[in-house]
Structure formats: structure tokens, C-alpha cells
Known about the structure:
With 478 residues, the chain is of the alpha/beta class. It is built from 16 helices and 16 strands.
Amino acid sequence: MENNLLADTAETDFQVIFKKQLVRAQQLRKQPWQNRKKLLRLFGAFILQNRPRIHQALKADLGKSATETDISEVFPVISELKEAVRNLADWVTPEQIDAPLTYLGTTSEIHYEPKGTCLIIGPWNYPFNLTIGPLVSCLAAGNTAILKPSELTVHTSRLIRDLVSEFFDEELVTVVEGDVQAATQLLQLPFHHIFFTGSTAVGKVVMRAAAENLSSITLELGGKSPTVIDATANLNDAARRIAFGKFLNVGQTCVAPDYVLIDRTVAREFIELLKQHVIQLFGSGSGITAQSNDYARIVNTKNFNRLQALVQDAVHLGATIELTGTSDSARHFFHPVILSNVSTRSKIMQEEIFGPVLPVIFYHHEDEILPIILERPKPLGFYIFSNRKSFQQKLSVEVSAGAVCINDCVLQFTHPRLPFGGINASGFGKAHGRYGFLAFSNEKPVLKQKSGITMSSFLYPPFTNRVKRTINLMLRWL
Ligand code: NAD
């Protein structure tokens, strides 16, 4: 039936491969899940063998050091693979469901069936991790996949294409390289699931396209993740952890702290500590320079200029520069910037920063915190640095966010057993571990009835007084 959805004449290459994948997806449904486990185990070994190629691609695209690539690109994918290999037997086992009295005599199970043929569209900021990570969940659930990595990280996109064609046959996994045009064409196909990671603006385009085919979707989007620090927080820990979470990958991280709201009585001390930690983590004796090995680069000139314009606008509206240095646009090296006295009207407080610029806003009273956060779209992450349980509790309850992390930041992303995803503007649907497996599975109930008289047959027409009495009893007691 699905094949009829595609025109028979003048098929594009995408339609051809999509059709082949539909056939393979149907075959996969009949194969034992143990095959998936074996495939994932081999794929993990293959990725580790190819680590040097991954290092080279990320160095070329984002100036990442090999160690940063291991931490933020290779490790999360290997962790995802290990979690799937270890737990697949458990994840695929049908769940037995108890019958309430009205269903006496029936037995029910939830089966986890593969959705079929899926599309994974990746971003450029963690281009390996955020394209191959979802692929692991997709394969664990028994699907086929077409991957569309970001065109902005060309070396990683090319590498993903090569690795995939070396390891998988194209009916199982195919990579389509290209930009908006390729993505637009792919989105016309009736995929059974689309897993998109990228900006909120493009997320809306993907959702509209998915609606045409009623494809289910996971949207992993971005947003402004707020970070609140009160006077009871361990300021040194907060400064070190925020320095790492914010300036890793030069702030081009969807879960990076976007801005800080801090009690004004501890703000100065925090800013001094933060400056020290940023330099210690990413620089050397001469500070952070275009030669610093452990500090990545901005993806392209467009984003470099965008960040400069955000800083200029904030300064124009009265912001104070607490930390800056010489940047080098030709090499896409953007020195870390810390700002204070930032107006909430400035552009930097309206859009996701996605770069190494951190606005720090001082509050005089705790009542000022919630209005600033709540007037912005729901964020992907929310960070609270405090040693007061009541404060942690109040903010975690009153702020709706993809995740809350207390006394640290970003860590929630890499935890393999936590669901990862946003809410509304920061996306929906969950990824990672079992949640990623579920995103690519249909939770299909299978109910078996016994033969002969059943509980439901007492409710069949004609609706005699006996039926009416039965329904009255049910309404009252069940
Ligand atoms: P983007 O939305 O510009 O691009 C993402 C992908 O969509 C790319 O592969 C691109 O080719 C494709 N694309 C672009 N325009 C398209 C269109 N009109 N139709 C279909 N596809 C299109 O995002 P980006 O700049 O690569 O990534 C940065 C954004 O992603 C940030 O907002 C960041 O917060 C977010 N992000 C979210 C997560 C998460 O897990 N929630 C992770 C990383 C990045």
C-alpha cells in the first residue's frame, strides 16, 4: 500500500532508496531481535576502530581537540550503543498487562513493534553524536534509516556518509548529503518517523511537512536555558561547572547555560571565579588565544558575525564587558565574553545565544527570577545552583523545562538512563536509552479474548433492563 504513495513515473533517487528501505523494513519485522544486538555490537567496534577519522573530521569542522571529540561525540554514541546492547532483551520483551474486572478472561500485552522506515536530520554543533546517536535507537527498535547530516560541517557529513556505506547496506541505512533542498525533498516522503535535531524555526518546517504524511516526529530543538544562582550556592563549584558547560564547543551546545540570574550579593565574587575558571579550563599562561588547543571554533563566519552583533547590541543598551579578548574572524576564533548589567530588552536576551557569550543578570530579590524566565519560551534545560532545598523545589516546580539539573549543568544530556528532550518550543518526544528505543517503536497492545461468554457480551444489545442494571453497577463500582 505504501509503495502506491509514491509516483511510479520519474522517481527520484530518494524515492528509489526509500522504496527499497520499505521492503527491508518489512523483512526486519520478521527477524529475531538478537540480530539487532549483534549489529549494534559490531557497529560499536567499527566506530572505535575509526576514532582517528572522527577526530580529524571534527578538528577540520569545529576545531575540536581529539579529547573534546572523544568526550562529546564518541563517548555519548558508544554509551548509547552499550546501553542498547545491554538492555535490548528487556526493551523488546512484551509487557504483560493485568486485566481489570471488566476484562476478566482476556490477556493483554504491549508489543514494541518497529515503526518502519525513518528519517534522521542532524545539526552541525555535535554533528557525529547527534546524527549517529539517534541512529542507534532507530536500529535498536528494528527500523531502517535515511540520515541527513548537516551541510555546515562538511567533513563530518562526508565521514558519516563513508562510514555508513562501509558498514551498512543501503537498504538498511543510507546517508543523503545536502542542504535545505535535499532535506525538503526527503521530507516529502511518507516516513514512519522523523527524528529532527536543530533550530526551533526549522523544527516548525519539519512539523508542517510531517503533517502532510502524518509521520510521527521527535523534535530536538534549542532555546535559552536559564541558570539561577542564589547566595547559598557553592560559588566555586558553580563557576567551574558553568565555565565548562557554557564554553565547551564554544557555547554551540543546545543545553549550554544561556544566561545567568544571580543574587547580587554574591555576583561579583562569582564573576571573578568564573573568569578564572574559563581561562584555566580553556587557555594557558597567555590566556585564551587562537592557538588554544582545548578551545573549539565557531562553525562559520555568519555565526561569528551574529555573535559579534549580539554583543554590540547588548553593550549599546548598557551592558558591561567583564571578560573579553582578541577574536579572529578569519579563523572563527571567538574569545569568551562575559557580560553584566544586561538589559532584558537586548537581542542577546531574546534569542538563543549558541556561542561563547554569557550574560550575567543580578537580581535584588528572588521575586525577580520567575518573570524573566517565564516570559520566554520553555527552555531545554534549567539549572539551579543553591544549597537551599526549598529554593530548589520551588523553582523546579514553577519552571517548565525539558530537564532540571541542580548544582551542575549539561550533565543531564549524557545520562544514558534519563529521557532527553524539550517541551513545546524546545521540542518534544524523548531520546536516549530506552526512551530513544520507544521513540522509534510503536507501543502496540495485543489483546486476546477467550472463547464463549465474555464480560463484554453482557453489554451487547438488545439493551434490556438486565444490561441497564449491569451498566449502572459498573458505573457505580468499577
Ligand atoms: P538548523 O535547524 O539550521 O539545521 C538542522 C538540520 O536541518 C540541518 O541538517 C539542515 O540541513 C536542515 N535544514 C535546514 N533548513 C531546513 C529546512 N527549511 N527544511 C528542512 N531541513 C532543513 O539547526 P542547526 O543550526 O544545525 O543547529 C543549531 C540548533 O539546533 C540550535 O537551535 C540548537 O539549540 C539546536 N540543537 C538542539 C539539540 C537538542 O538535542 N535538543 C541538539 C543540538 C542542537
